[in-house]
Amino acid sequence: MTLFWILSGLLTLLLALVIILPLTRGRAESSHSRNQLNTQLYRQRLQELEQDRDQGLLEEGESAAQELQKSLLDDVVTEKPQQYRRGIWLWLPAVLIVVAVAYAGYWQLGAYPKVVQWQDNAARLSELSRKVLIEPDGEVTEQDMMDLIQSLRTKLHQDGDDFRGWLLLGRLTLEMRDGETARDALEKALKLTDTPDTVIVPYAEALAMTGEALRAENMIKQVLSRDPDNLEAWSVFAFMALQQDNLTAAIARWQQILQRMSPDSPRYAMIERSVAFAERRLAETDQAPVTGPRFEVEVNAASAVPYHPGAVLFVYAVDAQGGEMPLVARRIERPSFPLTVTLSNADAMVASNNMSGRDAVVIKARIAPSGNVTYATDAWEGRSGVMSTDEDSQLSIFIDTPL
């Protein structure tokens, strides 16, 4: 904070100089220009007098030259030091007003209260950790969690090699459902540890939150192949199925947890209730398991693509054999690139007309400022190559073609 006030003071001084110097310099330069002009006129007139005297047109040349010198002395402007100093002080009220308006405006409209709160949280890391993590009670609020996250991020900004800090930040932001921050924090934790299995499960959960479902599932499957009794991995695996509205898979994965968990565990009854709820919902909706290929699509846009506040991103698949009618589609409002979406038959426009009936598809990503995928005005598009529907795939699409 001290650095802020020093810099703001220097900027204020610079602003004062911008106000004062041109004005004072203008007065001095004005006086200097007038004296210079008078001198030039004196010399020009003196030459004319000499020419007249040489031609015998002027008899009293010396007297005329003296009169000319006296006239020059009368016209010379003398800048008195005392008057110059008074000129500077005349602008002091204007400078004070500028300073007052600047600091008052910052106090009212700037982020000063948030900066003070941030500094306060940064100094309370131990206190917040004890309140939220070590000795939690019923008084822990969402604001306490946010304050702890902010304090921890400040510490990690200063000490970026703290593996446990990055892991804790990732888990806390997962708890707050901030998938992007959790993913970035856990990526850094992965780079700093020699035991990646302690990070992979929460990292996969963060990936699932941000749309990278296929990659997340592959990571969880690898963990379970090495450690089939990893209850955290099974729990995240069930969460992924629930996120995709695949109730059948979620029930099967919860049952795997129940088989490995003691009935005395406090979580046992909670998972039983989750299974019962999913079974009732499955019976009500008569939902069939989602089958068919899945495509995890990472979408990015070229810098040439103009920004439109109301633009909508459409990611969809069409038959590679021809036809522009989308088989499956996702609609994302206010997209922020890069982003990842997963296309499956669950996103079918018509349930009976999906990707399973095609040998190959082409994935397209289109930014439509109008919000309507059929309007090509000002729209930009990117597309993949031909993708087989025989297996799940991951791909990237770069939007760089105007329509």
UniProtKB/TrEMBL annotation:
Residues 114-268 form the Cytochrome c-type biogenesis protein H TPR domain. Keywords: Cytochrome c-type biogenesis, Membrane, Repeat, TPR repeat, Transmembrane, Transmembrane helix. It comes from the Bacteria. One of its GO terms (biological process) is cytochrome complex assembly. GO terms for cellular component: cell envelope; plasma membrane. Residues 296-400 form the Cytochrome c-type biogenesis protein H Ig-like domain. Pfam families: Ig_CycH (PF23892), TPR_CcmH_CycH (PF23914). SUPFAM superfamilies: TPR-like (SSF48452). The chain crosses the membrane at residues 6-24, 88-107. It is found in: Cell envelope. Its main location: other. This is C-type cytochrome biogenesis protein CcmI. It comes from Oceanisphaera arctica.
